[in-house]
Design brief:
Blueprint: H1 15-29, H2 34-40, H3 45-53, H4 60-69, H5 75-82, H6 93-104, E1 107-112, H7 123-131, H8 139-152, E2 163-169, H9 170-174, H10 180-193, E3 199-204, E4 218-222, E5 228-233, E6 238-241, H11 244-260, H12 264-279, E7 290-292, E8 304-308, E9 313-317, E10 326-328, H13 330-341
Parallel strand pairs: 1-2, 2-3
Antiparallel strand pairs: 1-4, 4-5, 5-6, 7-8, 8-9, 9-10
Helix pairs in contact: 1-3, 2-3, 4-5, 7-8, 10-12
Length: about 350
């Protein structure tokens, strides 16, 4: 297939929808279903569905895999590179200075109390936050603020992107924003982003009690030259601390918080547990594609059902479809499958 260069200047206004439509057309031209493509990439079928619907921005590794599998000759990757996925917009005046430092940072350390870090938010989660804040009722301003927040995330995927270390208070992953479906997607995205080599995610559990050192959002931003600045927020403005001695004191406090927080692995397990609990609250739970073993029958035996979601696997008792659901990471589930196949489990 001849490589085609995309130069349409109107792509920026509907980047996700345009890319999704092209991907769907190329997939269907190969006679391939979403599920078949998902197995080959590999990823989940809902992930492909969201990309084709324009509600999730694809990452480069996904596009390269799809390009190869659909034999587009570089058509998809050319389109992906041509689109400005996170067009930059103006930040609020009080936030602009911090955004400038963040954009050039080599390392960022954050502590979040009630909200997921803005650098790790999904589009739907961010929109729900702004829709219930001071921008409520102003759809144009809400979309501008969402675009601004998503634009900040681009740096995480760049080759020289910063090391991002985020400590969330346990309340951040448990506070419902936008409803269970939005939170389910958000926590899945958090788990996925935590697997990136430049992102470290930890949770400070409720059991820390009075040992929480900060009562508000705090960020320590280190420049490529090694200078660190501290930024925090009050109700309606941001605050900077540039004094090296004061910054060093706050850095030490943050380091101690990291030491007391759950490890990245335990933090992922807790996030996965909270996410699994949300599934029983979702009215669309019945639409998740559940599968039983071909050895199962309809006599009510000891059977389980499995569903593929992004980025994990769900397991429930087939006799109690409205009951609790377990959520496993892809690595844990694959380890289990390998153990069964090799006879290490009875």
């Amino acid at each position: 297939m001849t490589r085609k260069k995309f130069t349409n200047p109107n792509l920026r206004s509907s980047a996700g929808a345009v890319f999704g439509a092209v991907l769907k057309q190329l997939r269907e031209s190969k006679g391939m279903s979403q599920g078949q493509l998902a197995i080959l990439i590999p990823c989940s079928r809902p992930h492909i569905s969201r990309i084709e619907a324009g509600t999730r921005n694809p990452q480069e590794d996904f596009v390269l895999a799809a390009d190869r599998l659909l034999e587009t000759g570089g058509q998809l990757i050319d389109l992906w590179k041509e689109i400005d996925w996170y067009a930059r917009v103006e930040h609020p005046d009080w936030f602009r200075r911090y955004a400038g430092y963040e954009n050039k940072a080599s390392k960022i350390g954050e502590f979040q109390v009630l909200r997921i870090s803005g650098l790790l938010q999904t589009e739907r989660y961010a929109r729900a936050l702004f829709s219930g804040g001071t921008a409520a009722g102003n759809s144009e301003l809400i979309e501008e603020l969402v675009a601004s927040r998503l634009a900040r995330q681009r740096r995480l995927f760049e080759e020289d992107g910063p090391l991002l270390m985020v400590v969330h208070c346990e309340a951040a992953i448990r506070t419902m924003v936008g409803g269970p479906e939005v939170m389910y997607e958000q926590l899945g995205h958090l788990l996925e982003m935590s697997q990136r080599p430049n992102i470290v995610h930890q949770i400070a559990p409720f059991s820390l009690g009075e040992r929480f050192p900060f009562g508000t959002f705090v960020a320590l931003v280190t420049s490529p030259e090694g200078r660190t600045r501290l930024y925090s927020e009050s109700l309606d403005q941001g605050h900077f601390i540039d004094d090296p001695r004061e910054v060093q004191r706050r850095q030490r406090t943050y380091d101690l918080l990291q030491a007391e927080a759950l490890s990245p692995r335990d933090s992922a397990d807790l996030t996965r547990s909270v996410r699994g609990g949300l599934l029983s609250m979702m009215p669309s739970k019945a639409t998740v594609p559940w599968h039983k073993s071909s050895y199962s029958d309809n006599n009510g035996g000891n059977c389980v059902e499995v569903a593929t979601t992004h980025p994990g696997r769900l397991v429930r008792d087939s006799k109690d479809p409205e009951g609790p659901v377990l959520d496993f990471s892809p690595v844990a589930w694959q380890s289990f499958i390998d153990a069964v196949r090799t006879g290490r489990l009875h």
